[in-house]
Design a protein that fits this description.
two-stranded antiparallel ribbon; 2 strands; MobC; 2 domains
């Protein structure tokens, strides 16, 4: 009976609260991306090598956002052109799809040029460990006003205590904060920096493409067929902008 009751007990969780400054929180979010911050800190601390390789970004997030916006609009426009096929000349539909395919291919190649190339966990760990940072952490800091709650099951909590002891026996919350911030700084140094000019130019092209997609979507909602001749002229302009960025990037002229 006691054994059955023991099995039915909910797993016990312990919560550790860490406090960070706004700058530290911004760094954590930049590294964490869409992942839950608490999960990111816990998993990296408990299983550094496995976690770092699988979850750390290997590309600058500013560049990634611009490319994602362009690809999203390309997909929207491709759907609209396909839906409009029966009401447009075949050569116009084909040419529009070719322009969209070229835009997507070129932004993906720009992205590929800026990805941190690592073949496996060992190489990634070596890369981030070679980006040493010199950072003095003060135990008390009035600027650390953001609180992050991190939950551990019993086994994870025991791992946390053990690792904290290995790292000097400081309070677990402080050890976790210092360790994660140090690792996050190393990872950030390893990520290829965003070239401001390239990101800005991609933003210009992406904004123009978004404008085209909005106009097309408004016509679709109104039940009006596309005037592909007009759309093609605008797409040629956007494709020309992206082609210039692509050529600069692939010939290292930035």
């Amino acid at each position: 009976m006691e054994q059955i009751e023991e099995k039915n007990k909910a797993p016990r969780y312990k919560t550790v609260k860490i406090r960070v400054s706004q700058n530290e929180y911004t760094l954590i979010k930049e590294i964490a991306g869409e992942t839950n911050v608490s999960t990111q800190i816990r998993d990296m601390f408990l299983d550094e090598q496995e976690f770092a390789f699988k979850n750390m970004p290997k590309i600058n997030n500013h560049l990634l956002r611009e490319v994602a916006m362009i690809v999203n609009n390309v997909n929207q426009l491709a759907r609209a052109v396909n839906e409009n096929k029966g009401r447009a000349r075949e050569e116009e539909s084909l040419y529009s799809m070719e322009l969209l395919a070229t835009i997507e291919k070129q932004v993906q190649e720009i992205l590929d040029c800026n990805v941190m190339k690592v073949k496996g966990q060992r190489e990634f760990k070596k890369l981030i460990s070679s980006n040493e940072t010199i950072r003095e952490f003060s135990p008390i800091n009035e600027n650390r006003k953001r609180e992050i709650k991190i939950c551990f099951n019993q086994e994870q909590y025991e791992q946390l205590i053990s690792k904290s002891e290995e790292l000097g026996g400081k309070p677990v919350a402080r050890v976790m904060r210092e360790y994660f911030i140090s690792q996050a700084e190393r990872v950030k140094k390893a990520i290829p920096p965003a070239k401001y000019e390239m990101v800005s130019e991609l933003n210009t092209a992406g904004t123009a493409l978004n404008y085209i997609a909005k106009g097309v979507n408004e016509r679709r909602k109104a039940g009006v067929s596309l005037v592909l001749h007009s759309v093609m002229a605008q797409l040629e302009m956007v494709q020309g902008l992206i082609e210039k960025i692509h050529n600069k990037e692939t010939t290292n002229d930035f």
